[in-house]
Amino acid sequence: MKLHIVFLLLFLTACSRPKVEPVLTLPEATQKGANTFGFMLDNEVWVAYGKRCFVTSPCQYGDVRVLRYLNNGKPNFRFDAGLFTKEKTDYLDIEIENITQVGTYTLQDMHNYNYVYFNVWRYNTNYKAQLNAKKGFTFHITKLDTINKIISGSFEGELQEYNDSTKTKQVRDGRFDVIWLDR
User: Fold this and answer.
1) How confident is the model at residue 12 (pLDDT cuts 50, 70, 90)?
2) Helix H segments across the chain?
3) N or C: which end of the chain has fewer CB within 10 A?
4) Where are the beta strands (DSSP E) in the chain?
5) Which of 77, 33, 64, 71 is nearest to 177 (CA)?
6) Domain limits of the chain?
7) 3-state class of 132 per DSSP?
8) Residue 155 near residue 140, CB atoms below 8 Å
9) Cβ–Cβ < 8 Å for 157, 168
């Protein structure tokens, strides 16, 4: 019986320890399919990281997932990433159409197959925002390997809040090096 009480006390004290926010750093800019994704959001590092679990739904992981599919015969890429820490629950969803070769792609026309959508929630301030890319958000594709299914590059641009276009955030030093899945 004493052993059960000791285990119970150990369990309760382990659960009650304060969780420290991790120190996040941008991944290296590589071209080897390292499944990395990150950028600077204003002056804050944002990387695909962590996991968030709920009793009523499965766990969500803060990794990056990239899906390549054809739309009217044109290759589209969809990037999904999450950042989950004690204080943050962020989701990023990017879709870029007609990526056929290495080069620069600028989102001039935002629509169903060309967008950047970013959902931010900060627990400590109860700050919530839905941000969308402004025209001119740019992606530089530096590697497009159709044999090994690797897409790598960098990106930058400006995000504006969905309900208040005067509130913006800068995205800079963005980088990704991922292996995609075909749909």
Assistant:
1) very low
2) 2-16
3) N
4) 36-41, 44-47, 51-54, 57-61, 64-71, 74-84, 89-96, 103-107, 115-122, 127-133, 137-145, 150-161, 168-179, 181-182
5) 33
6) 2-182
7) strand
8) yes
9) no
**What are residue 96's phi and psi, to 5 degrees?**
-130, 130
Give pLDDT tens digits for 112-159: 667 787 777 766 665 666 767 777 889 999 999 999 999 999 999 888
Q: DSSP code of 17?
A: S
Q: Do the Cβ atoms of 77 and 66 come closer than 8 Å?
A: yes
- Average pLDDT taken over every residue of the chain: 82
Is pLDDT larger for residue 113 or for residue 104? 104
Q: What are the tokens at 181?
A: 């899945």
Residue with tokens 């750093």: 25
- Residue matched to tokens 């990023």: 92
Do residues 64 and 48 make contact, with C-beta atoms less than 8 angstroms apart? yes
